[in-house]
Amino acid sequence: MSGRSRSGLNVGRTYTDRSSRLAVPLTFWAAGVGGITAGLWRLWAVRALLTAGTIGSGRVLTAIHLFTLGGFSMLMMGALYQLTPVLLNCPAVRPHTALSQWAVYTLGVTLFVLGFNNDSKELITLGGIGVVAGILFFVINLAGRIYSRTTWNITAWFFATALFYLTLTVVMGGLLGLRYVFGAPSFRNEPAIHVALAAGGWFGLVVIGASYRLWAMFGRKHREPRWWLMVWVLANGAVWCWVIGELAVGGWLAAVGWVSQLAAFLLYAADILQSGLIDRRTRDDPALRALLAGMAFLLVWEVLGSWALVGQDPRLWIPALLSYGLGWIGFSFIGFVQKIVPFMVWLHRYAHVHGRGKMPRLDDIWRPGWGIVPLASGALGLGVVLVGWALRSGILLTVGLALQAVAWLALYPAGLRAVRGPHRIPS
């Protein structure tokens, strides 16, 4: 909303340089939600291959990279542009610099997934160059702000190491791209190493670090995490045990890595429970209930992953990774975005006139009821997808993926209404 609110307050001026311009995270988030929705569509197109456990074809790789590059990484880039200056008290990246990086990265991702979908090595090569350039551009934009801090807090530790793993992930992805296009170089278990760096290092550390701070802000108990350092040590140890085990030593060290990440999960869950995850007031808030759903699917990831290792059934990694990505990462975003967007809107449009009259609260900007559809449709959809995979039912996979798409698409009208208004003013 621009101009005047119903209370007569002038709104629209940026309040602080410790927050990104609204256009920056919203552009990344809108594109990321679109990438995940497109990934759901492509996953539906390859549902027969999915139930058969086939993941190496170009069409399946199209769906995977729509989720990882076009979806989750896009969401996290937008989140870090917003959260880094707020949580680390440093200047935000300039809007034109961040949006230029978005343009380079988006063009690269588009060409990259089109290349896999059409089996075009030329497009894969061009897109891969764009993806690498866009990610390195992003790392450069944020690394200086994070690594130059004289006092390191919880957020800085997790975000800094996540950027390090993102850099390693893109290097590993570049090597995989070269092998896919030219047949070389090649070494032991490249895909498993790539997944470990991306899922455990980049995705995992960003979500954990952000959720620690956001639970302290928006959770009902506002408690600081107790076990964060052990979680950070164990999560990093898990990634490196897995990578080294897959690269050279053998399965036993990778198994040690899995046990390490399981211990990290238990301590992380203890911290989040202490913050009020199952508190009655949390269960009354659809946004926070989405975070509870995310933790439940993270537990599913742990169970299925352990089963895959102990039972030596690699097919189980497919539903495990769906639970990790669409479940934990997805619901973490769905829940927190309903808190971050109204906070951003209030900070930019009302904070500078605070105390001069009635103005909206956060729940008046993003109304709690708007979170019911993403929560219900998303949780039911992912559950149906997992059952459909287990039963090898194309019909159930179709229904589940459609429900997931509804959950993600529902964020668009809610977000647009929250940003544009009109916002309710308490009587």
SSE order: EEHHHHHHHHHHHHHHHH
Q: How would you name the oligomeric state of the polypeptide chains in this document? A: single chain
CATH class type? Mainly Alpha
Q: Largest sheet, if any?
A: 2 strands, antiparallel
Task: Tell me the CATH topology.
Answer: Cytochrome C Oxidase, Chain A
Strand content: under 5%
Helix content: over 70%
What CATH architecture label applies? Up-down Bundle
Detailed description of the structure:
By secondary structure, this protein is mostly helical. The chain contains 16 helices and two strands. Strands 1-2 form a two-stranded antiparallel sheet. A hairpin with a 5-residue loop joins strand 1 (3-4) and strand 2 (10-11). Helix 12 (317-349) runs antiparallel to helix 14. The longest helix is centred in the last third of the chain and has 33 residues, at 317-349. The two termini are 19 Å apart. Mean pLDDT is 86; it is low at 1-15.
Helices, strands, pairings?
Layout: E1 3-4, E2 10-11, H1 23-45, H2 47-52, H3 58-88, H4 95-118, H5 121-147, H6 154-182, H7 190-218, H8 228-249, H9 251-274, H10 280-283, H11 286-310, H12 317-349, H13 362-365, H14 372-391, H15 394-409, H16 411-420
Antiparallel strand pairs: 1-2
Helix pairs in contact: 1-3, 1-4, 1-15, 3-4, 3-5, 3-7, 4-5, 5-6, 6-7, 7-8, 7-12, 8-9, 9-11, 11-12, 11-14, 12-14, 12-16, 14-15
